[in-house]
Amino acid sequence: MKVNTIGIFALLTALCVALPARAENAQMKRLLETGECSGCNLAGVNLSGVQLLGADLRNANLQGANLSGTNLEGADLTGANLKNANLTDTFLTNASLDYAIMTDANLTNARVYNANTSGAVLTGVNIQNAEVFGSGISVGGE
Fold it and tell me: According to a count of CB atoms within 10 Å of the terminal CB, is the N or C end of the chain lower?
């Protein structure tokens, strides 16, 4: 009986670990196939170098995600959580970052032209060598 209990516990533990990973992979797959992932949990994912032009990432959790070299031109990131996200070399022209949480996001060498940032939390954003025009992102944030 004790062996069966241990086996059942091990199986349940494995399922609890695997199910969130599967859900995350399904959401990432949906984003890559459709360009839509509003409200998705993509925390910590690697989307480096991906073309996400016009992607719908409203209210998505991208905390700690690697978006380096990603093309997010025209993407809707309204309300997205980009805390500690790596946006190095990212292209954010005409993107909507309204009400996004960008605390400690790394925008080194990013190109941010005419991005909407109304209500965005920009505390600690790194914009070293970034090209930022026509948006609310600046040294010291908003």
Answer: N
Distance CA 108, CA 76 (A): 20
Question: What's the pLDDT at 4?
Answer: 54
**Which strand (E) or helix (H) includes residue 66?**
none
pLDDT value of residue 137? 82
Name which of 60, 79, 72 is nearest 117 in CA terms.
79
**Which residues of the chain fall short of a pLDDT of 70?**
1-24, 139-142
Continuous segment of H or E residues that includes residue 3: helix 2-34
Distance between CA 42 and CA 63 in Å, rounded?
7
Torsion of CA 27, 93, 141, 61, to 10 degrees: 0
What does the alpha-carbon distance between residue 16 and residue 56 come to, in Å, rounded to a whole number? 29
Tokens of 10: 């091990």
> In sequence order, what are the beta bridge partners of 53?
none
Task: Write down the pLDDT at residue 20.
Answer: 43
CA-nearest of 38, 46, 112, 19 to 80 is 38
